[in-house]
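Sequence design from tokenized structure. All designs in this work follow the same two-part layout: the structure record, then the generated sequence. An example of the structure record is given first.
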């Protein structure tokens, strides 16, 4: 029987060699990939964050846990992405992590979910300055710009990025949405003037559809 708790533990403990076998066994037993990600893998990362906050672990352990998560996700990605090509394209989304922030796991999950929902997605990476969001949105003819922020020190960069988008020539035609553990709806939408906020990748797809007036 699939060892789902084992998957969670392997991520928390950073057992990168074990994760592949455990995830593959779960997939072989037809465990839903979304259940695996949402109920076990993301939950594991939350616990890693709590352990870091409680000073039970430090940056190196957090990094090993993140790599273990990514190794597991690589196996699952093709299953989630397989229907994507057929339905392209509901719109174009440019997405990146704000300046000063290197966290990419959550953003990459949002990319995956959007792609599998028929959007053309351009992942412009991490540590992205505000002006680069604007340039890329223009160059790639984005309908939506999404930014991810995991660090509370990133709040000014979230604000600056939204301001850069809203004061540019793209303001009328490109919607701006935010996500990531450091951002709240109140801050992103009410304070900074974003068009939308999503708490997770599934919600992210809904919010993109919503700001584009789709279904
Ligand atoms: C893994 C991790 C790391 C890894 C990152 C590896 C990587 N490749 O991403 C490493 C070790 C590098 C790291 C470094 C640091 N980290 Co760190 N990290 C984490 C940890 C444990 C998990 C993050 C994660 O991947 N979560 C899993 C994903 C799936 O969740 P998520 O990112 O929230 O994304 C979901 C939603 O938020 C949403 N979403 C995310 N982005 C977007 C974007 C859009 C557009 C939308 C719609 C939705 C959306 O959808 C996603 C999927 O559902 C968090 C703890 C936590 N609870 O978040 C700390 C955490 C974010 N890190 C923290 C800190 C302090 C740091 C460091 C400063 C530590 C240090 N002293 O060096 C550095 C900063 C480096 C930098 N400049 O960025 C703090 C931040 C505290 C704060 N209040 O600012 C946290 C909260 C830990 C803690 N509890 O103290 N970290």
């Amino acid at each position: 029987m699939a060892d789902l708790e084992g998957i969670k533990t392997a991520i928390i403990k950073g057992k990168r060699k074990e994760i592949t076998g455990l995830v593959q066994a779960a997939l072989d037993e037809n465990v839903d990939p979304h259940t695996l990600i949402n109920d076990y893998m993301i939950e594991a990362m939350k616990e890693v964050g709590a352990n870091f906050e409680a000073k039970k672990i430090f940056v190196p352990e957090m990094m090993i846990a993140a790599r273990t998560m990514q190794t597991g996700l690589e196996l699952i990605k093709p299953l989630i992405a397989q229907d994507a090509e057929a339905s392209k394209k509901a719109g174009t989304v440019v997405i990146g992590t704000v300046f000063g922030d290197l966290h990419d796991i959550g953003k990459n999950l949002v990319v995956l979910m959007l792609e599998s929902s028929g959007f053309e997605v351009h992942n412009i990476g991490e540590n992205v300055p505000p002006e680069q969001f604007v340039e890329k949105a223009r160059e790639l003819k984005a309908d939506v710009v999404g930014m991810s922020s995991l660090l509370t020190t990133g709040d000014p960069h979230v604000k600056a990025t939204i301001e850069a988008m809203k004061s540019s020539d793209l303001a009328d035609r490109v919607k701006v949405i935010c996500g990531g553990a450091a951002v709240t709806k109140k801050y992103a939408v009410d304070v900074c003037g974003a068009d939308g906020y999503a708490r997770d990748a599934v919600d992210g797809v809904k919010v993109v559809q919503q700001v584009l007036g789709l279904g």
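The mean pLDDT is 94. We note this feature because it recurs in several other targets discussed in the main text.
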